[in-house]
Amino acid sequence: MEKRELLYEGKAKRLFLTDDENLVISEFKDDLTAFNGEKKSSEAGKGALNNKISTELFKLLEANGIQTHFVKMLDDNHMLHTKVDVILIEVIVRNIATGSLTRNLGIKDGTILPFTLVEFDYKDDDLGDPKLNDQHALILGLVEHQDELDKLRRMARQINDILKPYFADKGLNLVDFKLEFGKDKSGNIILVDEISPDNCRFWDMESGEKMDKDRFRQGLGGLTVAYEQVLNRILGK
């Protein structure tokens, strides 16, 4: 598959066209950003780890009936996937209170939520990715109708129902995570982007150690070591 011109560059990935109009290539970068781009850095090997972790998790979800954009991993830093029209809604799934939920609502950090919380954020860096309710999303034209918002919530919960016990079996609490979705050429809503410690929070069940991008956000160090541990647990090493 030939990688052609750059289509888009985001915080963590570059997206390239290919010789197939229905397929694109993502290059996973080593760049790190936090707090809406206010904190920036880079750590060698981070992109490859996220590509490998995302590959395994997309395969797992596909095997459990979740349609994704994943086609195959091309090499350490490149993934081939279906071209989609991205829905500009970040779907946040929370099992345990931390981060912005704790700051905004005063829920004690580490509180296990009585049910899985699904939230929507507007995918717009200039606005700081603000919270959305259903009416906001419809007014902005981010989806065509209410049924699509219902489907995003339903798919998010299904993904959580697969991933939460999967990681628990590997000694990790899946605290919360961000999902992105898009529409393929047939108009089907499918899971896109990545699933990695960049957009998931993992806490070790025994030690409580943070195994995700919070190590960068909070200046804890050892980010790639933690990401590698997550990958090794996924691979059963």
From TrEMBL:
Keyword terms: ATP-binding, Ligase, Nucleotide-binding, Purine biosynthesis
SUPFAM superfamilies found in the cross-reference section: SAICAR synthase-like
Residues in SAICAR synthetase/ADE2 N-terminal domain copies: 6-233
EC number: 6.3.2.6
Coiled coil ranges: none
Nucleotide-binding listed as a keyword: yes
GO biological process terms held by the UniProt record: 'de novo' IMP biosynthetic process; cobalamin biosynthetic process
Catalytic activity: 5-amino-1-(5-phospho-D-ribosyl)imidazole-4-carboxylate + L-aspartate + ATP = (2S)-2-[5-amino-1-(5-phospho-beta-D-ribosyl)imidazole-4-carboxamido]succinate + ADP + phosphate + 2 H(+)
Pathway: Purine metabolism; IMP biosynthesis via de novo pathway; 5-amino-1-(5-phospho-D-ribosyl)imidazole-4-carboxamide from 5-amino-1-(5-phospho-D-ribosyl)imidazole-4-carboxylate: step 1/2
HAMAP family hit by this protein: SAICAR_synth (MF_00137)
Record protein name field: Phosphoribosylaminoimidazole-succinocarboxamide synthase
Species this chain originates from: Candidatus Sulfurimonas marisnigri
Gene: purC
